[in-house]
Write a structure and sequence with these properties.
Endonuclease Iii, domain 2, Endonuclease III, domain 1
Length: about 260
């Protein structure tokens, strides 16, 4: 992928990150360069439809189910099913029976999510691709997160891999968390808020920094990353009972 296909200057992004973070500068020099496969042709509706199908199952199984869903769309238009067919339109999804969608391999929860996505697309809550380009990251998160079964992480992946937004930091992503632990030689995963604070130094190119956290995670391998411990518990301030009693007595004497 060339820089022209990105909505930001990749050279400027890597230069900024290298200057602001020596550890990240080393990763940028050593690891696979930032080259996400951005699909500018896919609408928010289509991207979220695919995301719903792919949730919590293997990629191979999801691809099979997604092909069946597309075939249902072709059948409703009287067309022969094709491997590269279109996803059902929102109107078609609302008309498709639960029985047909179940037969395609979708769970009850995913059927409800797809129908909610279809309705919110018709209502204008889920924007078109052109409308999405004009909305901020947070505006898109707020709108798309309202769809049943769609969480913030899914929207963040849409922002990165469909719109190519430069400043997205998926603080709840396991690969980013463990990649950070590998890159900065930590024994524990960071808490999401800790990662958010740390990532301030990467603005306004946190997407690129996240890419290198993923690459650091991949390079380390599962044998190493499985040893990374859960985030450390927050330290609780312990107040000694004796000290409290002394303070209470002192205050009582002053009042007398």
């Amino acid at each position: 992928m060339t820089n022209i296909e990105l909505p930001f200057d990749l050279a400027a992004a890597t230069a900024h990150l290298s200057a602001s973070d020596p550890c990240l500068a080393k990763l940028i020099e050593e690891l696979v360069p930032f080259e996400p496969e951005i699909d500018h042709m896919q609408s928010p509706y289509e991207a979220l439809m695919e995301a719903i199908v792919y949730q919590s199952i293997s990629g191979k199984a999801a691809a099979t189910i997604f092909a069946r869903v597309k075939a249902l769309s072709a059948a409703s238009r009287g067309e022969p099913p094709g491997r590269d067919g279109r996803v059902p339109s929102p109107e078609e999804v609302l008309k498709l029976s639960k029985q047909k969608l179940r037969k395609a391999g979708l769970s009850g929860a995913k059927i409800l999510s797809m129908k909610d996505l279809a309705q919110k697309t018709i209502d204008g809550i889920v924007p078109t691709h052109d409308e999405a380009l004009k909305l901020s990251d947070e505006e898109l998160v707020e709108r798309l997160d309202s769809v049943r079964g769609i969480g913030r992480w899914t929207v963040e992946m849409f922002l990165i891999f469909r719109l190519g937004r430069p400043d997205v930091l998926p603080i709840h992503d396991l690969g980013v968390q463990k990649g950070w632990s590998v890159a900065y030689r930590k024994k524990h995963k960071p808490r999401p808020k800790e990662l958010l604070r740390f990532g301030e130094r990467w603005r306004p190119y946190r997407t690129v920094a996240s890419w290198y956290m993923w690459r650091a995670f991949e390079k380390a391998g599962y044998a190493a990353t499985n040893k990374i411990k859960k985030p450390r518990a927050k330290r609780k301030v312990r107040v000694k009972v004796k000290r409290v009693k002394v303070l209470l007595r002192t205050n009582a004497k002053k009042k007398k």
